[in-house]
Amino acid sequence: MKSISIRSLINSIIYDTAHKMAERGLFVRDDFGEPNIRAITELARAVTSGLELPIERLIKTENRLHNLLAVIHRDGGHYRVKYGEEKAAMDAEQIIIGERTKNDPL
Q1: Both 6 and 43 in a single domain?
Q2: What's this model's pTM, rounded to 2 decimal places?
Q3: Which of 67, 17, 61, 6 is nearest to 40 (CA)?
Q4: Is residue 24 located within the same domain as residue 73?
Q5: How far is residue 9's CA from residue 17's CA, in Å, rounded to a whole number?
């Protein structure tokens, strides 16, 4: 499977939408009958500015949490896939509480 950045995907969607808008006469065309690329580029920049970094952070955070659950469950992530994130997180919490109680009784 080919990987694509969020920004590239959004730019592609905007470009395709601009072509459809131009076909309906809703977008300024250049001398060759194509949608005005500068206007499309400015639109894409406006839409994507500040978007990629927060999305990348969310993806990295999600990956870290998945890795942490895999370590706690000692299964490489299979428990989370089988039972879902919520159950895996709740059960991981109980595992940690059990380990701490066993190692450091009150």
Answers
A1: yes
A2: 0.51
A3: 17
A4: no
A5: 12
Return the structure tokens found at 59.
């993806």
The amino acid occupying position 27 is F
Count the Cβ atoms, other than its own, within 10 Å of residue 69: 19
DSSP 50-62: TTHHHHHHHHHHH
The residue among 67, 61, 72 whose CA lies nearest residue 94 is 72
Q: How many domains does the chain have?
A: 2
Q: Which residues in the chain show pLDDT less than 50?
A: none
**Burial (CB count <10 Å: 0-12, 13-18, 19+), residue 52:** middle
What's the pLDDT score for residue 37? 64
- Structural domain of 3: 1-49
d(CA 19, CA 11) in angstroms, rounded, equals 12
**Reduced to 3 states, what is the DSSP secondary structure of residue 48?**
helix
Count of all residues that appear for the chain in the document: 106
Q: Can you state the angle between helices 52-73 and 6-23, rounded to 10 degrees?
A: 140
